[in-house]
Write a structure and sequence with these properties.
- The protein has 130 residues and is mainly beta.
- Helices cover 13% and strands 35% of the residues.
- It contains 1 helix and 9 strands; from the N terminus they run αβββββββββ.
- Strands 1-3-4-5-6-7-8-9 form an 8-stranded antiparallel barrel.
- The relative contact order is 0.20.
Length: 130
């Protein structure tokens, strides 16, 4: 009986170790709103018409169809980079900002907010599409 119990526990441990790890941000998001505060705290999110998306991949990289180095809404180029689920940052490849500042983000089940390194609040709001 004791050997059977040990075998069951061992089997459960082996099975649980083989299960793939879930990545929290592995999803595709679409830009819906931007916030550009004028510096007095009165800024609010404003709806935008854009096809810009960002997709977080399981390998710690992301891909966007727009330039995340700036607050634009265009979706006319591919941009890649790295993201961190530990410090909630994006580091786009090829930004001309020197030095390259990480871009922070916050995320809920249905909403992604990208916070650009501005003096006043400047953010982009995305919704989950996949």
């Amino acid at each position: 009986m004791k050997k059977l119990l040990i075998a069951i526990v061992f089997g459960i441990l082996v099975f649980s170790a083989c299960k793939p790890q879930e990545v929290l941000v592995s999803n595709k998001w679409k830009l819906i709103e931007v916030l550009n505060d004028p510096g007095d705290g009165s800024g609010t999110f404003i709806s935008v018409q854009s096809d810009r998306t960002i997709e977080f991949l399981n390998d710690g990289t992301f891909e966007s169809n727009g330039d995340l180095c700036n607050m634009g809404t265009d979706s006319d180029q591919v941009l890649t980079g790295l993201y961190s689920e530990i410090d909630f940052t994006l580091i786009p490849d090829g930004c001309s900002i020197t030095p390259v500042f990480p871009i922070s983000y916050t995320m809920s089940d249905e909403e992604l907010i990208i916070n650009y390194p501005c003096i006043e609040p400047c953010q982009q709001k995305y919704i989950k599409v996949e």
